[in-house]
UniProtKB/TrEMBL annotation:
GO terms for biological process: transmembrane transport. It is found in: Cell inner membrane; Cell membrane. The chain crosses the membrane at residues 7-31, 68-88, 100-124, 130-154, 174-196, 231-250. Keywords: Cell inner membrane, Cell membrane, Membrane, Transmembrane, Transmembrane helix, Transport. SUPFAM superfamilies: MetI-like (SSF161098). This is ABC transporter permease.
Length: 264
């Protein structure tokens, strides 16, 4: 074990370097003063960040993605929490079917879901609707919340719930004061993963968005097909920064080890 220690450490360091290197390169390119995708060799510049904030289409797409991800993640949480508690505490007909139905979007390619949603929305006459876009994202990200809620609900000690019930606590009080605080790390982690997956979703969204509901990843994809310049690197750097700040804030509040694993 000791003999393999340096080798294992070197392997893990290479894996981390392999994962972080593209992000570092993108962030460096975002500060280039040149008009091409190149590393800044003659100094750093904020010209491409300024260019991003001067583009109304990118600002609108960012707000669309932010609103969409927040609404979809919240709806997915409202679905996953009662479903997860029901499946971990009760046995009922169709339990396996319900579990498979809610988790199935995670194994279906988003390309297939995008084509299916496009056809469905066309039949319903709701193409380009923001509300139905929220519905589509909710379907796709619900499994991420459900998996963490299930992990958190299975591991909780129900003696506190029984004690609260014996003292006369009603169902609403029991859930809000006892059950929810115990599964909150799993719920928060699920909401965060759902939010990030919804915010970054492009394969499904490209089929069902309209010019008025275009999300940031879709706008970036369309822009990348029209021109190649460091503006895309600047947008990517901003998204990376927002994600990093969100993770840091979540770690400060709950601790990432508890949130991502769903431990108490």
């Amino acid at each position: 074990m000791t003999r393999n220690g340096p080798l294992a450490l070197s392997f893990h360091a290479l894996v981390v370097l392999f994962m972080l290197a593209p992000l570092v390169v993108v962030c460096l390119v975002a500060f280039t003063p040149e008009n091409t995708l190149s590393l800044p060799t003659s100094g750093f510049s904020l010209r491409w960040f300024t260019a991003v904030f001067e583009r109304a289409d990118f600002i609108k797409a960012f707000y669309n993605s932010l609103q969409l991800a927040a609404l979809a993640a919240t709806l997915a949480t409202l679905i996953a929490v009662p479903a997860g508690l029901a499946m971990t505490r009760y046995s009922f007909p169709g339990q396996g079917f319900l579990n498979g139905l809610l988790l199935s979007p995670i194994i279906i390619p988003h390309l297939v879901l995008g084509v299916a949603m496009l056809r469905l929305f066309a039949l319903l006459g709701v193409n380009g609707s923001f509300a139905w876009l929220v519905f589509a994202h909710t379907v796709v990200i619900t499994p991420y919340v459900l998996r963490l809620v299930l992990a958190a609900a299975i591991g909780i000690d129900r003696s506190a719930e029984h004690a609260a019930q014996s003292l006369g606590a009603g169902r609403v009080t029991l859930f809000c004061k006892v059950t929810l605080p115990m599964i909150l790390p799993g719920v928060a982690g699920g909401w965060l993963l759902a939010f990030i997956n919804s915010f970054d979703e492009v394969t499904l969204s490209i089929f069902i968005t309209s010019p008025a509901t275009q999300t940031l990843p879709v706008r970036m994809y369309v822009y990348a097909t029209e021109s190649i310049d460091p503006m895309m690197a600047a947008v990517s750097a901003l998204v990376i920064a927002i994600t990093a700040l969100t993770m840091i804030a979540l770690d400060r509040v709950y601790g990432l080890d508890r949130v991502l694993v769903g431990k108490q």
